[in-house]
Amino acid sequence: MEVLYSSTRNDGAKVTASQAILKGLADDGGLFVPDHIPALECSMRELTGKSYQEIAYEVMRLFLTDFTQDELKNCIDRAYDSKFDTPIIAPFAEAEGTYYLELFHGATIAFKDMALSILPHLMITAAKKNQAQNEIVILTATSGDTGKAALAGFAGVEGTKIIVFYPKDGVSPIQEKQMVTQKGNNTFVVGIRGNFDDAQTGVKKLFNDQELVKKMADAGLQFSSANSINIGRLVPQVVYYVYAYVKLLEEGKISDGEKINVVVPTGNFGNILAAFYAKNMGVPIGKLVCASNENKVLYDFFVTGTYDRNRQFMLTSSPSMDILISSNLERLIYRIAGNDAKVNAELMKSLSTNGSYEITQQMKEQLADFYGNYADERETAQRIKEMYENTGYILDTHTAVASAVYRKYVQETGDGSATVIASTASPFKFTRNVMKAIDEKYSAMSDFELVDELSKIGNVAVPNAIEEIRTAPILHDTVCDKSEMKAVVESFLGIGS
Ligand SMILES: *Cc1c(COP(=O)(O)O)cnc(C)c1O
User: Fold this and answer.
1) Is residue 397 within 8 Å of 433, Cβ to Cβ?
2) Is the pLDDT at 120 greater than 90, yes or no?
3) Is the pLDDT of residue 497 over 80?
4) Residue 151 confidence (pLDDT)
5) Which atom of ligand 1 has the smallest separation from the CA of 267?
6) Distance 220 CA to ligand 1 centre (A)
7) How does pLDDT run across 401-437, given as a tens digit for each residue?
8) Residue (of 327, 400, 338) closest to 366 by Cα position
9) Using a 6 Å CB cutoff, which residues line ligand 1?
10) Ligand 1: which of 116, 266, 323, 329 to mutate, judged by most atoms within 8 Å of the beta carbon?
């Protein structure tokens, strides 16, 4: 059955999947959502024995209904290839009886690669399908990982340019080095003096700046988004939750129909929303555990029903979760409002004018699938140390937040269901904080000494993504204020006045 997409803020006009991917964000500032969540057409048992690519096809074809079989398979094959350092693509590590689904085996060693290695292919295919003549300009705000994954995905892709804004002092040293050394003459990387929310809000504003959009159109250019507001990011993320369940079943870790819990370290709410979509497609998932760091706006929301971004922004050791406006929550709000765009639009208006909104009791009752909690900096560091000492396995700071929150969940509920924790980054990306958590003595070492030490004590090879940047020259050094973002974009695109 065909799936069409409409904006969370106005569901009058419907577009195809390829049109939604091409546009990124709806004209009214809303996010594209599917008109229904398709059910899987095979049982979990029938999917056992299949490869990641085969399962990706089974899942994605149900959402991207205007892509032909050839188009979609071609995108999948080009995305999930030897860029990943294992043919399994998303392997499990079992530690302390819990399954860590390692989503960091792609080119930039964070889970963003799972979707951003396919997004450029989906977008180019979508452009062809819709006879788009314009060159696509990917405009992206990053809390550190999306930026590099999107740059890696779009660098050198004909018919595209990519501009990435990151918070100058809000990412890890390795994250920054990965971005500013990016090659490709269609890539632009800019640090902004501000935090991730400033970058994200600035980018959304540029998308809706009609004067800029017109100027670009005159120059044969159009924006699209590589952020998780693009439905083309969300759909590929549903795949690995289906895959995870199938693999546990295949290996006899769970039995047919057995419910598993899923724990996700959360920032922009994209990854956990993908798990929610997987559950709604029919994957036997019990609780969706939403783990936050000290920026615990989502925890407060799940407890009180009020989303309130009026608070201090904290810089933590898990920078990719340092977010106060979780964009993808809007897709969930739209759904629990009974797919009512008007109700959702009102709430989002309140968020942008007052910084907060409150959902009704009836909406709150529909959040029973979710459990929210958070881990502070001390608990996160403690978890890394403990895990290392107990098992030798080294968690990155984001995954450690999830692991700490999962413990709180078990303590509170006694729920002993098999559990998958989304392991979102390699510890090599956050070496300084990871090593410091294990032992203070590491504080004195340089970033790359820490890399080598981590490799030694964890008994894991240094990933290519890190080797690559050891000596790479810095190619991007633009820094600007958030008020200058528009001028910077115009200047890069050669359309400045
Ligand atoms: C992006 C990111 C997250 C947060 O994911 P969302 O989909 O934004 O909730 C968590 N951990 C890491 C390492 C990330 O890069």
Assistant:
1) yes
2) yes
3) no
4) 96
5) 9
6) 33
7) 999 999 999 999 999 999 999 999 999 999 999 999 9
8) 338
9) 110-112, 145, 228, 265-271, 320-321, 398, 424-425
10) 266
Catalytic residue among 23, 50, 83, 112: 112
Tokens of 485: 């973002």
Q: Are 174 and 431 in contact (CB under 8 A)?
A: yes
Structure tokens at 456: 């030694």
Whether 168 is a known active-site residue: answer: no
Pocket test for ligand 1, best of 321, 328, 395 (most atoms within 8 A of CB): 321
Nearest atom in ligand 1 to 143's CA: 1
